[in-house]
Amino acid sequence: SFVVSQNISHVLASIFKHLYTNDIIRKDTVSNLVQTKRVRGSYHDRYVEELQQVIIYTHLQLVDMLDNHMIQASACAAAKENQAYERMKATAGDVCDHQELLTGEILLKTLKTFKNITVLYCSTTDCFLSFTSREPVFIVNTHNAQVRLCLYSYFESPAEEPIPVFLAKPSVVVFTDYSVGNIYEVCFRLKNVTSSSRHIRVIPPTTPYFSIGLGRFPGEGGVVAPGMSCKYTLRFAPDSLGDYKDFIVVETQAEGPFVVPIEAWRPPPILTCMFSLLLSFCAKMWASALGPFSLAKTYFSEQPPFAVSPSLFVLEPGEATVVEVSLDLKSGRKSCQVFTVVCDNCQVKDISIEGEGQLIALELVSVSGGEEPPVVGEVHDLTAEHFIRFSPCNPHSVQQKKLVIRNNVHLELPFHWQIMKPNLHPLLPRESPDASHIQFHLATDEVFHVSPSTGILAPCQDQEYLLIFCPKELKDYHSVCHLVLRDIPQLPPEPSDSSVIIMEIEVKGSTEPYQILLEPYAIVIPGEIFICTPTSRQFKMWNHSKTFICFQWERINSSCHVIEVEPSSGRIEENECFDFSLTVTGGKAENIVTSLVCHIQHHHEPVTLAVEVSFKGPTVTLNVPSIDFGPIRPREQTQTTLLLTNTTQLEASWILERKLTVHSISVEPSRGLLPPLASCNVDVLFKPHSCQLFETELELTVENGTGCHLSVRADVQSSHVCLLNCTLSFPELYVGASATGTVTLFNQTLLPSQFSWLGKQASLCSATFDPSSGTLGPKVSMEITVTFTAHTDLELTEVAAVCEVQGMNSPLVVGIVAKPKKLSVSYNTEKTVFSRSSPNGQSPSTPVLEFGDGVILKSAVSKQLLITNQTAIPAPFTVEAEYFTCHALKNKELTLFVCSLPEFVSSLLAHGKGAAFFVTPHTGTLGAFESRAVDVTAYTDMWGEYTDHLICKVGDLKPVLIPIHMTVKGCPLYFQMTGPRAQDQNQGPIIQFGTHVSGGDTVSRSLRINNPTMFDIRLDWETYNVDQNDGKLLDFVVVFGDAFPLKDADGNEVLSSALRLSSFNETAWEKTRTTVSEETSASLQSLTKKLISVHIRPHMGNLSDYPFCITPQQIVIPAKSSRAIHVSFTPLTLSGAARKSRCVGLALGFMNLDSEVSCCDSMLNPGKCKHAHMRCLSQVNFEQSIFLFFLQIVVREFDITQSFQLKNTSEMPLHFSLGTQPPFSVVKPKPRGPTSTSRNPPSGDNQSLVLKPQHSMRVKVAFHCSLPLLDHVEQTDEEIPPGVKLIHGANGQMKLRFEQNLLIHYSNNTLQTVPLCAHLDLPTLRLSAVSVDFGLCYVGQTQTREVNLYSCGAHMFWKSITSNHKSISNLYFSTLLVIRSPLIKTSVTLQLRGTGSFDEMSRSS
């Protein structure tokens, strides 16, 4: 195909001219016939095709002949070259540098042997030129073994140059860039360079590749005027990429023709490749011109043992391709073959390829530590050439040996290592191993490694390897390392596998366990250590192993104890020791024997450290070993106190509880926490429910500590008393005469027994017992004297006296037998019963009419006296008070409502005694067995303790005097501005001073106090400041001498008295807001003067006369007169960041009577009236009484301020004014600037202000909180002003929101607004019930019901009053309780109802 595709007929025609020129058919004949075949018939076409086939066959024969000539010339040249080379080598030594020149000379001589070929050597270009006249020439370049095949055309110039007539432009027509199959055109000109017009004739080119068209002349007839040119078009149609040369003959009137050369050539192809190749190398070719190239050797691309690929390739200019040469040697000797590179234009180049086979030769040069031959009798691998032994080591340690292997061949050898199991088979001396015993199994232990495991052995160089031994278990290891070469060809009849084991190295290694030693191997901590107290001990760990060890200590962290080692982890080098610290912390008292584990990395068993330690916790002891309650009655409670002591330095959490479930014994408190070395008291309460011999055990448990057990014992018995004589006989008994007898009580138990004889008497007789009650000791008998009185002359045979013994279900009964004789009247109050049977007898147990200790001044209090006639004989009776009588009114019949009128009360108290007892009915007739209720009503207008007797006379019986006792409390004084207050006598007015400037002048208010009584009353004032955040509850007051001594007009004491000292505050001696403490007055029974008094009173405030003060502090208000006091308020001076302060004060006034004689006739009736707890006053050396009430002072209105800045950012001063509406207001704006202060004085609302450029002004806006703001709550949506809105919260709270704008009016009539907003919380009051019904209540008995009052939103003051009193038939009562507050417009009401009854079934227990 290569020959057919290349047209080299022009080359053959030039060389073998006689063969081509003798034909009658020229080369252009066929071309002309082809071009005209479409015009003629089919015969012409068939003729032209046959003619083309004959020409092609002829050309092929010529080409074959030319190839044979060239092969013969090349063979002859090679033979002559070898002969010349041998001669030159024998004479001139090494002739390598002259090899190319020699080749050129021989080729030249060889070419000269061919006919019609002329050879010329050019020394400047180092090439040979072969040419004939007017024929193409071969150029062979010998530089760098590159073959260039170029085609040129040369024409011999005439011997003499004619004078030119025409000049061609261009002088030579050249085509440079062309390809096969295309037609190229170019224009050239012929210019007449003579002075006359010339005719011209152009003869076309001789080759078929060039053709010329008709010329274009400047004139007619083919004449070219002087200086003018004619133009011709030359066409070029190449059929190959070779070089072309031709010419155009221009005939003119001159002697000779004018020739225009035509050339077509491309840049010659230049290929670069190595002319001598070795095994496994690749040839790379580079082309400088386009063209297909081929490697050929007698038409083959394979020449054993070599093969070249690819055999055909195309290279564009600047491209490169890779030519791969493979070698397949069957032996270890050299081979050489020559391959030829042929271009499409017949340029050729020979390439010599050589290859040499070598045998593998590797050598183990050295081993670090040297090779150690196996010992005698040691089993080793059958095929291994080398033996390497590693020293013993610990598991997971790493040992390395360096191997040096030398490659003794000139080849790169790819390799890899394989670790195989050894072939172990015992052999006799000089015995060869059997092939069946040699097996190849990969080692599975993976303890031997070679690095690098794969790679390439460089030619004739040493390669270093690391043989690594890393054992993992305690055993001996044995393996063989195979060095395997890859891609090694095997000679027949060897197997086709390309991998070869080239070297076998046998390796052995052994392991030994880690050698670790603890010093000491166990830690025993003597004694006991406290829990929660860390204790440390030191120990060491030695590493006697072959390598370092990594340790990790476990940490015992249980719920009770912590045992750990520091450091817990680390590394110990071989033959070194490490210091450790063992820390133990106990959480529970016990003895611990354990082992602490240390994990050694890669060690099969951990190292353990034995630890023994004893912990002890806190110890709590009791002050008694046991508790014996002794004899005790059922359902009676007793208790004892235990002392628990913590004897250690640890906190002790203890629990004292019953070991068994027993409900009759309890411990308070039952648990607690004792600090170190502290003690506490524990109460053990015992309340049995039945008789028994009680024994139990209490267990004291201490958390993580030592407790104890406490035994408890008690003998539970019930009272059992008997009468030694059960019948008492009075053989002689007279009516009204008393007789005595004795009965004996005997206590049969070990418990003291309480007994009492019932005081109710029979209707026909009476009896008294001495003692009437008492305690009967254990196993003790007591004689009781019985006094018996008979009121009739009838014989008494069924009279019995009853004795109740506490703890016994049934009373003891003594039967009395007598013959009684007469009449009996009894008097019954709420507490006692008194009987009267004869005018000569009087019971030693006298009833008392007790009005109580809390009678309110000016209030009516009633008590009942029940008079019972125990006989069937009617008798008149009269009842009246002995001293505080009402003689003027005792004959009037008035009801209870009439008696409560103020005029009636004033008439009753007109005698000036301070109290009066009004009895209704005071006289009447007591019918047979009739009981009459007598109401005794007390009226008072002065406080004090009142005692009297109620004289009761029935028939001819001796009048009975029933003692009356009453303590009146209250304040008779009242302020002019509030008037008398019956329900709240001790409460004064609330003085509100409003809002004042800090540090301002003192503000004073005048208050007038009225004294409506008939006695002069002295007042001592003290003022207190109330702090809402004050957490103090009580004041401990110590008084030396008089609490309030009498002072003169200058404030000096008239009589000497001691100073008052208080451990907390210098406050009043008495309680505030109430009367003098009942408990204190009740405890002062003696009239002996005391110098020192101690009082505990509720804390009301801090005693101070600033900012509130009352003058004068001591004042005497005359009877039926009044006096004025002055209450002053001095505003506080605020400092720092404080901008407001709310002051709340309290004033207490203590009352005292200067003379007791002035209020009652003590000389005539000594002891009838004692005012204001006279016993208490006598204790502090007071001759008259003391009483107190208080006055509360509150400053309520206040302002809340916020501030902002106005800044003038312009370059001109601004004139403006600020405006707001109440409750907002502007407070003192203060201008300021960056460098100076504005000279404008501060101003408020609607004042003109000036703000300088780049200055700022702070403006304060205040919100004024006052009571009128609350009026908006009741207003409708139409009445409420704009900007005010009532907001209801989710939990019932209400707020008032006030919104408006701060208006900034500028002097240019512009307006700027700043939004303002404030929220006011509204307080609310509500009751837990709307009504309370007391139901049926026994007359004279007080009933109490509890109602809760809730406040939401804010703190507030409130007061309550009653109104709408209603009474129906003196038994049904109703009233309305109204609760008012100044902060709430709508009052809260509570309806109260109750019904009185004389039925004792209505009496509450």
UniProtKB/TrEMBL annotation:
Signal peptide: none annotated. Residues 166-252 form the Deleted in lung and esophageal cancer protein 1 Ig-like domain. Residues 1234-1249 have a biased composition (Polar residues). Pfam families: HYDIN_VesB_CFA65-like_Ig, Ig_Dlec1_1, Ig_DLEC1_6th. Keywords: Cell projection, Cilium, Cytoplasm. It is found in: Cell projection, Cilium; Cytoplasm. Residues 618-714 form the HYDIN/VesB/CFA65-like Ig-like domain. GO terms for biological process: negative regulation of cell population proliferation. GO terms for cellular component: cilium; cytoplasm. One of its GO terms (molecular function) is tubulin binding. The keyword DNA-binding does not apply. Its main location: other. Transmembrane segments: none annotated. Residues 1220-1249 are annotated as: Disordered. InterPro entries: DLEC1, HYDIN_VesB_CFA65-like_Ig, Ig-like_fold, Ig_DLEC1_1. This is DLEC1 cilia and flagella associated protein. It comes from Maylandia zebra.
